[in-house]
Design goal:
alpha/beta, 235 residues
Length: 235
């Protein structure tokens, strides 16, 4: 018993050490207010997205959420603290450790963490959820796998949503070598039409523009969309 207790102390000390290391010099995207870290480089945009979609969850009947590319876990943790069941999917080792640390510190047994990179081979391993959160990931998939495969990945992720999906992507601020399509003069309109074509049985709603930054960390704005299912996911 004493050995187990000492091992627990060592594990806790190591987890704390990794947390203090991983949180420095600053969090790039998401704050972790439940651990006393209220600032992050894109904290205002993280919170404005939350404010845009959180009021809709009740009317949509959302109970379970999967956040694909969840970063430090702002949305899964926030949802878990409000009683939702959530899974954060994040392949970056540093960010995954931050997510796991928050889950354990807060004792959130309704929140899980999945260390998985989304590829054409692994996407079918994703769990299903009432809500899929898919924010600022798609342009990276286009860069890694090409436009056609990234579009099929979007369709696969939508297929795992029982009720709704949140979507956002890099737009005209993204360099040409990523291989994104031409959004023209109306990126919001282009993306809305794209989602309507590739998210079968859906209605697409624009939830405003929110702060972001481009690959060179210059400020920009991105369009957030809520896609709701109007036809059964599995017919």
């Amino acid at each position: 018993m004493a050995v187990k207790v000492r091992r627990a102390w060592v594990d806790q000390a190591l987890d704390r050490f990794h947390f203090e290391l991983d949180r420095r010099p600053a969090l790039e995207y998401q704050p972790m207010p439940w651990l006393g870290i209220d600032s992050a480089d894109r904290g205002a945009g993280t919170r404005s997205r939350w404010d845009a979609f959180r009021p809709r969850l009740g009317s949509l009947g959302i109970r379970t959420v999967v956040d694909v590319g969840c970063n430090a876990g702002y949305y899964p943790i926030s949802l878990g603290l409000e009683g939702f069941a959530a899974v954060g999917v994040e392949p970056d080792p540093k960010l995954f450790r931050l997510l796991r640390y928050s889950i354990h510190r807060l004792g959130l047994d309704r929140v899980g963490a999945l260390d998985l990179a989304i590829t054409p081979l692994t996407v079918r391993m994703l769990p299903t959820g009432d809500l899929m959160i898919f924010l600022s990931v798609w342009h990276h998939l286009v860069r890694a796998h090409g436009l056609d495969d990234a579009t099929r990945l979007l369709e696969e992720i939508w297929a795992r949503s029982e009720r709704a999906m949140l979507f956002e992507t890099g737009e005209t601020e993204i360099p040409g070598h990523y291989g994104l399509p031409d959004f023209g003069d109306d990126p919001a309109g282009w993306i809305k039409g794209f989602l309507e074509r590739h998210c079968a049985g859906s209605a697409v709603e624009h939830l405003g523009q929110h702060d972001a930054f481009d690959p060179k960390r210059r400020p920009c704005r991105r369009n957030l969309f809520l896609i709701t299912r109007v036809a059964p996911a599995h017919e």
